[in-house]
Amino acid sequence: MYNIFSVKLLFEYISSPKDIPDKTFEETINIIKADKIEDINGLVAEQFKDLTYTNALGGVTTVKLVKILDIYELVDNIEEKLNYAEVYSRYILFENDISAEKVIELYSLDK
Asked: Quick check: 106 and 47 in contact, CB under 8 A?
């Protein structure tokens, strides 16, 4: 039998060409099934590998998992098909380059 966890993640969008001044982060909450909480890090790393695509300016954007911000074990019975389902997402946009650590601090994302 498995347990069901709500896992809050932070992604960073890294774009080229480098003269793109804005910076984008995405905070998501996903439902993940695991035998125990200690399995979450490995499962998340396997599921959310870096994703690279061609952006609208003809450059390249890479979406990178920055950090697992929070893990919460759910006690409700949730359908099996919801594994890795995203239940919340928001983009955090900046006009200038900023580090992931600063975004976490400014928005208290790890609280």
From this structure: no
Cα distance between residue 15 and residue 59, in whole Å: 7
* pLDDT top residue among 100 and 89: 100
Task: Report yes or no: 73 and 37 within 8 Å, Cβ to Cβ.
Answer: yes
Rounded to the nearest integer, the mean pLDDT of the chain is: 86
Q: Which two three-digit tokens encode residue 103?
A: 């975004």
Answer for the pair 83, 15: CB distance below 8 angstroms, yes or no.
no
The answer to whether the peptide bond before residue 21 is cis (omega within 30 degrees of 0) is no
- Distant-in-sequence, close-in-space partners of 77: CB < 8 Å, separation ≥ 6: none
Planar angle of CA 47, 44, 79, nearest 5 degrees: 80
CB 109 within 8 A of CB 29: no
Kindly give the pairing relationship between strand 23-34 and strand 86-94: antiparallel
